Amino acid sequence: TVRSLVAAIDAKDSYTKGHQERVAMFSTLLGKALNLPRSELDLLQQAAILHDIGKIGIPEPILRKTTKLTIEEFEIIKQHPAIGAEIITPVEFLKDVVPIILHHHEKYDGTGYPEGICCEQIPLGARIIAVADAVDAMLSDRPYARAKSLSQVKEELTRCSGTQFDPELAEIALKINLPLLSVK
Questions:
Q1: Closest CA to 83 of 105, 112, 55
Q2: Which one of 30, 57, 110, 147 is most buried, counting C-beta atoms within 10 A?
Q3: How far apart are CA 122 and CA 118, in angstroms?
Q4: Whole-number Å distance between alpha carbons of 140 and 23
Q5: How many angstroms separate the CA atoms of 24 and 178, rounded?
Q6: Count of alpha carbons within 13 Å of 48, Cβ hemisphere only?
Q7: Are the C-beta atoms of residues 42 and 36 closer than 8 Å to each other?
Q8: Looking at residues 32-53, what average pLDDT do you find?
Q9: Mean of all residue pLDDT scores within the chain
């Protein structure tokens, strides 16, 4: 079931090919650094693999756009966590993944989406995936931006600690060997 869902994401958006696996790998490294039990690491890995499943519901021209999104287009992109949660909800064995997928774009300071929750209100798995997702995005060439250097990624993690990212997770991420994740 999970593999089929991942294949559906990859078919819709070529950028996601490999992205989910790298986000899952980095999320697992963060989870291990927090000493999460095996069951939580497994849940985290499933959530990371499926975090962008909602992009299936986003029009391809928006997903593949190479220039800055309009306000209206960004509002459409912001729907993908809720769409993803809706897609996963009927799958009984993935029920614990739903809140993680729904909240993976929340920001630690409450300025994220879809609900604008903050700090510990955001499920730990979603906070972990938020860091892993951002790191992978920054290390990858995307249609709208070139990959950042490792030093730029570390600067961004430091700058956004406590605002976009859980400060404890940002600190742990800075200690992990980021070149392992580089797609270059």
A1: 55
A2: 30
A3: 6
A4: 12
A5: 14
A6: 31
A7: no
A8: 95
A9: 90
C-alpha pair distances (Å), 70 with each of 47, 73, 79, 175: 29, 5, 15, 36
Cα 22 from Cα 179, distance rounded (Å): 12
pLDDT band at 13 (very low <50, low <70, confident <90, very high): low
pLDDT recorded at residue 184: 44
> Would you state the structure tokens that stand for residue 25, as one six-digit string?
């790998």
What secondary structure letter does DSSP report for 36?
-
Q: Output the pTM of the full model.
A: 0.91
pLDDT tens profile 114-134: 999 999 999 999 999 999 999
How many C-beta atoms surround the C-beta of residue 73 within 10 A? 16
Report pLDDT digits (tens) over 47-102: 999 999 999 999 989 988 888 899 999 999 999 999 999 999 999 999 999 999 99
Bin 44: left if φ > 0, else alpha if -120 < ψ < 50, else beta.
Answer: alpha
DSSP string, 127-156: HHHHHHHHHHHHHS-BTTBPPPPHHHHHHH
Q: Which residue has the tokens 């912001």?
A: 78
The dihedral formed by the CA atoms of 54, 14, 47 and 150, expressed in degrees to the nearest 10: -120
The conformation of residue 68, written as its DSSP 8-state character, comes to P
